[in-house]
Design a protein that fits this description.
By secondary structure, the protein is mostly helical. It has a domain of 191 residues. The protein is built from 15 helices and no strands. The two termini are 36 Å apart.
């Protein structure tokens, strides 16, 4: 592990907490205490090493500007909302995203980190992925943590968040491993994602697998084509097993069937179509409802938390879709704000940052909580800072070549 510094220890612990166990309510300790501790350490670190912080990269600047714009935008949405207790709570929750983005961007942009694909923070994400998979395995066979019976979630409590986070962390951290350990690690992460029975997370994991095979560190185009083609074939086989019910039949005829619930059996295509369960049908209803309500107020939408209240929203759940959520509550302005976030991660998070952007864009079709969880902000800040560091190294290398040629 290169570029290690003792100053990174508290940062690593905070990344592990907010990206790994933040969702689990530790008895006797409110999450607010850890958030205040995080802010105190960030401020202390900035005072201690002021010269090590640099927000000069284009990606870092863009993410900072977006955070400020997003903050003003959600305040506007709150002002046109019902301003109820629910709306106020959502306001507080949504304000955490820009706070985490700015804070971790400052930390990751620090010169102390010397970011690269094998720096210590990358290994923290690897540990988070392994830990999450282990907790999912435990939670599946000993249901204690997940709020949805039959679907593992570990300390994430929500199976959808657990599945997508494992897929994200796998993408960001797998290149830190030597080649012989990468495929077993990917399969291990796939097991953790599978046990969440989140169809969106399954797709997000497959996208990560295909990219890692195509991108990775393969240099020759021939190797890229072979690995990429093999990954696509592997992904198609996995999806065929998942979405045709073949895997469901295998599990149903094994000793694992005793751990399945009617919900998980439906998601595996046992006894009905993959998308015949109540979850799939209800999601179609709320998506159509969100599109209709957004069309009634196309500029700024219906206001913050509209789809979380019973003050006009006729459904029991929100949209389960980030695009429809921003359209319903924020109108076209909201959609553009959200798309600009994904665009920044894509444009400035070169390499793994781009596949992370694709994964988030795909995951956004299945969740309305993407910007409510700290891990999204942490990963976005990390890959953008990583992209800026890579650009800076490339620029320095070009300047060195130019100087050498002049000599």
């Amino acid at each position: 592990m290169r570029h290690f510094s003792l100053a990174l220890v508290p940062v690593g612990l905070l990344v592990f907490y907010f990206a790994g166990i933040y969702f689990y309510p530790i008895p006797g300790i409110k999450p607010l205490y850890f958030q205040l501790l995080f802010l105190a350490i960030a401020v202390y670190w900035f005072i201690l090493f002021p010269r090590n912080f640099s927000i000069k990269g284009p990606g870092s600047k863009a993410l900072m500007i977006w955070s400020l714009t997003y903050t003003m935008f959600i305040i506007i949405l709150y002002l046109i909302s019902s301003q109820s207790d629910t709306a106020t709570q959502i306001l507080i929750t949504w304000l955490k995203a820009p706070l985490f983005l700015i804070s971790f961007m400052l930390i990751f942009s620090s010169k102390l980190n010397n970011l690269s694909a094998t720096n210590p923070i990358t290994f923290i994400f690897l540990i988070i992925a392994v830990f999450a998979v282990c907790m999912n395995i435990y939670d599946f066979f000993n249901p204690t943590l997940s709020k949805v019976p039959g679907r593992a979630a570990g300390f994430y409590i929500n199976p959808n968040v657990a599945g997508s986070t494992i897929a994200y962390a796998m993408t960001v951290s797998v290149l830190a491993l030597s080649r012989k350990f990468r495929f077993p690690f990917i399969i291990f992460c796939g097991l953790g994602v599978l046990l969440t029975f989140s169809r969106g997370a399954w797709l997000v994991w497959v996208v990560g697998v295909v990219y890692l095979a195509w991108g990775g560190d393969a240099v020759s185009m021939r190797r890229k084509i072979i690995l990429g083609g093999g990954a696509v074939l592997f992904g198609l086989v996995v999806l065929a097993f998942l979405f045709t019910g073949l895997l469901g039949q295998i599990i149903f005829n094994s000793s694992l069937s005793e751990y399945l619930t009617p919900n998980t059996m439906a998601r595996l295509g046992i006894g009905a179509s993959q998308f015949a369960d109540h979850s799939a049908s209800s999601r179609a209803d709320v998506v159509l409802g969100g599109l209709n309500f957004g069309a009634r107020a196309p500029v700024f939408g219906q206001g913050l938390a509209f789809t979380r209240e019973n003050l006009g929203w006729p459904y029991r759940v929100s949209t389960h879709n980030m695009y429809v959520l921003f359209w319903a509550e924020g109108g076209l302005t909201g959609v553009l704000v959200f798309l600009s976030f994904l665009g920044i991660v894509w444009k400035f998070g070169v390499g793994i940052g781009r596949v992370l952007a694709v994964q988030m864009a795909l995951d956004s079709l299945f969740t309305h909580n993407l910007l409510e969880v700290p891990v999204t902000a942490i990963l976005a800040a990390y890959v953008v800072a990583l992209g800026d560091a890579r650009r800076q190294r490339n620029a320095q290398a070009r300047r060195s070549v130019v100087r050498a040629l002049r000599i």
